[in-house]
């Protein structure tokens, strides 16, 4: 792969891709930050805030690059705070409500396992700016996965109650995992230009990590039924509007103010 | 500091002559500026007072996550969101060091939580006030962390080693927090009239509760005299309050804000400001549990603990299983 910035690729597809990476990080980071001060142990409060902080930092990088390559003068903040739900490109999984701590951890694990594979693949992107962001983010996400994987195992193989909660979390969230691996025209464009992996290509590794972890956690992997989708093309769940109403409140209520 | 009106054990401060040899040797070490370490002999009153003070301080850090956490999901930019997350994470970290420092005195973190949840242990009155606008986040950093620093800097020289050492790191982080709070406000006062009004409103609401953080005048208090003799406390509440006002008023002037105290006036002779008294009746009501957010704050902490029971039990059960498997593996091997 060459390291020339932005090889020939459809710019709309590239913009789309950068929004997807940034929005996944932003919305999951936002969800995690809802826990602040309410986690079941002080160490968990610290760890969740730390993970949220990493994700917000990654958001700044991905959306910053998206705005830059769009060339219309939009900053990362403009993209985060002034788009409506239909313009967001995160997968549905990350906007799922926190639920109990088990559901938050399971959502994190299912996402982290995908996120790490994705970032590792992006480290060899033909675009150096993408590769650089992925390099930095992959280090952080490797730690996120270590942590969420470990806790899923310990709680799955803990008490009958913790096992039940983790099983329910897994069953509830499973239909939202398929979207991570469903490619579209934009993904094909990027893969063809060597900018990023085809989503389908990450499935085998994810299946491996998730399968081994669930076995160790004594949790049964759900059957692959119908998979929910839509976030990647801007069709979200009802939760998204409320996330944005909260997140964007100040920017919307005081247009043009600087903070 | 985040500890107010800590009751001291001991009816009056004893002179060296009145002490038994062991206690006298202890007091002489303190007088010589030496640190007391966990395994060493200490009077029971010293130990109990420290547990009360350090745990109250720790509880304040973790309850303090709540008013600020209230605005993380509404922070106006990605950078502000990241800074606030980092700050609240620091507060949780401070709670952790302080609980560890208290544990060296023979009490467990779970016991301290229990005392908080049942209302026996207190936390700083300041966190029972609501954060109503984004400017409150700036005001907490500037005023609340500013007041905390006033009290915590001398605690770095406290006689109990683990507490003094925890305070060194905490003070470094608190200075950063105070600067970020001031920076939030400095940016807003240069903004739109609505933003500036928001900042003034925040100062109007947070000024008096911040002065209350130092506690009522304790010049005549036996508790304070004993704590000072033990070097758990180094300055009187009024001294620290004066220092805080003298430092903060010029900063308010710089921001173009009006401090909500008609009695505030520079006194050339004393080289400091004269200022009015907070409403101490309100203070005692807040301490007694009747502040605007007491029920919510304590309710949130209890809920976090109760809802998390299955999580903690799950981890403990796994640890036991893993240990049994390891032992069984060794026996088989």
From TrEMBL, chain A:
<dbReference type="InterPro" id="IPR012347">
    <property type="entry name" value="Ferritin-like"/>
</dbReference>
<dbReference type="InterPro" id="IPR007814">
    <property type="entry name" value="PaaA_PaaC"/>
</dbReference>
<dbReference type="Pfam" id="PF05138">
    <property type="entry name" value="PaaA_PaaC"/>
</dbReference>
<dbReference type="GO" id="GO:0005829">
    <property type="term" value="C:cytosol"/>
</dbReference>
<dbReference type="GO" id="GO:0010124">
    <property type="term" value="P:phenylacetate catabolic process"/>
</dbReference>
<dbReference type="InterPro" id="IPR052703">
    <property type="entry name" value="Aromatic_CoA_ox/epox"/>
</dbReference>
<protein>
    <submittedName>
        <fullName>Phenylacetic acid degradation protein</fullName>
    </submittedName>
</protein>
<dbReference type="InterPro" id="IPR009078">
    <property type="entry name" value="Ferritin-like_SF"/>
</dbReference>
<dbReference type="InterPro" id="IPR011882">
    <property type="entry name" value="PaaC"/>
</dbReference>
Automatic annotation (TrEMBL), chain B:
<dbReference type="GO" id="GO:0097266">
    <property type="term" value="F:phenylacetyl-CoA 1,2-epoxidase activity"/>
</dbReference>
<dbReference type="InterPro" id="IPR052703">
    <property type="entry name" value="Aromatic_CoA_ox/epox"/>
</dbReference>
<dbReference type="InterPro" id="IPR007814">
    <property type="entry name" value="PaaA_PaaC"/>
</dbReference>
<dbReference type="InterPro" id="IPR009078">
    <property type="entry name" value="Ferritin-like_SF"/>
</dbReference>
<dbReference type="GO" id="GO:0005829">
    <property type="term" value="C:cytosol"/>
</dbReference>
<dbReference type="InterPro" id="IPR011881">
    <property type="entry name" value="PaaA"/>
</dbReference>
<dbReference type="InterPro" id="IPR012347">
    <property type="entry name" value="Ferritin-like"/>
</dbReference>
<dbReference type="Pfam" id="PF05138">
    <property type="entry name" value="PaaA_PaaC"/>
</dbReference>
<protein>
    <submittedName>
        <fullName>Phenylacetate-CoA oxygenase</fullName>
    </submittedName>
</protein>
<dbReference type="GO" id="GO:0010124">
    <property type="term" value="P:phenylacetate catabolic process"/>
</dbReference>
């Amino acid at each position: 792969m060459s390291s020339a910035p932005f090889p020939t690729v459809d710019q709309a597809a590239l913009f789309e891709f950068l929004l997807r990476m940034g929005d996944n990080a932003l919305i999951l980071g936002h969800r995690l930050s809802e826990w602040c001060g309410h986690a079941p142990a002080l160490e968990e409060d610290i760890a969740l805030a730390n993970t949220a902080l990493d994700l917000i930092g990654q958001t700044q990088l991905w959306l910053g690059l998206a705005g830059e390559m769009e060339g219309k003068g939009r900053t990362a903040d403009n993209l985060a705070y002034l788009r409506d739900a239909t313009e967001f490109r995160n997968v549905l999984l990350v906007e799922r409500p926190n639920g109990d701590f088990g559901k938050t951890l399971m959502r994190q694990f299912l996402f982290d396992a995908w996120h790490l594979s994705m970032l590792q693949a992006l480290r060899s992107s033909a675009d150096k700016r993408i590769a650089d962001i992925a390099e930095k983010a992959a280090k952080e996400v490797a730690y996120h996965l270590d942590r969420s994987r470990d806790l899923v195992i310990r709680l799955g193989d803990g008490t009958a109650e913790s096992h039940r909660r983790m099983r329910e979390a897994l069953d509830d969230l499973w239909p939202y995992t398929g979207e991570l691996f469903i490619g579209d025209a934009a993904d094909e464009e990027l893969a063809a230009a060597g900018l990023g992996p085809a989503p389908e290509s990450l499935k085998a590794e994810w299946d491996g990590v998730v399968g081994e972890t669930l076995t160790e956690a004594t949790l049964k992997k759900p059957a692959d039924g119908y998979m929910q989708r839509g976030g990647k093309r801007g069709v979200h769940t009802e939760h998204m509007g409320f996330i944005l109403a909260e997140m964007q409140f100040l920017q919307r209520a005081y247009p043009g103010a600087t903070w | 500091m985040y500890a107010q009106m800590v009751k001291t054990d001991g009816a009056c401060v004893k002179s060296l002559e009145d002490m038994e040899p062991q206690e006298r040797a202890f007091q002489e070490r303190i007088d010589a500026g030496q640190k007391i370490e966990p395994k060493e002999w200490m009077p029971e009153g010293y130990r109990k007072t420290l547990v009360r003070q350090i745990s109250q301080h720790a509880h304040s850090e973790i309850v303090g996550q709540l008013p600020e956490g209230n605005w993380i999901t509404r922070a106006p930019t990605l950078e502000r969101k990241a800074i606030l997350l980092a700050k609240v994470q620091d507060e949780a970290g401070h709670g952790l060091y302080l609980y560890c420092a208290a544990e060296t005195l023979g009490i467990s973190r779970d016991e301290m939580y229990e005392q908080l949840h049942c209302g026996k242990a207190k936390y700083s009155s300041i966190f029972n006030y609501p954060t109503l606008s984004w400017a409150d986040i700036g005001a907490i950093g500037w005023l609340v962390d500013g007041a905390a620093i006033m009290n915590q800097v001398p605690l770095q020289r406290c006689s109990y080693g683990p507490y003094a050492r925890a305070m060194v790191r905490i003070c470094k982080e608190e200075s950063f927090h105070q600067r970020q709070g001031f920076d939030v406000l400095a940016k807003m006062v240069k903004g739109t009239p609505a933003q500036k009004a928001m900042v003034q409103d925040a100062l109007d609401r947070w000024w008096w509760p911040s002065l209350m953080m130092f506690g009522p005048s304790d010049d005549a208090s036996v508790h304070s005299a004993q704590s000072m003799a033990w070097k758990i406390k180094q300055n009187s509440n009024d001294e620290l309050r004066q220092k805080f006002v003298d430092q903060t008023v010029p900063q308010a002037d710089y921001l173009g804000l009006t401090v909500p105290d008609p009695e505030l006036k520079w006194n050339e002779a004393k080289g400091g400001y004269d200022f009015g008294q907070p409403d101490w009746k309100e203070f005692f009501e807040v301490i007694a549990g009747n502040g605007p957010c007491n029920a919510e704050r304590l309710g949130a902490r209890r809920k976090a603990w109760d809802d998390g029971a299955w999580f903690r039990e799950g981890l403990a059960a796994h640890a036991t299983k893993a240990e049994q498997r390891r032992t069984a593996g060794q026996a088989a091997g």
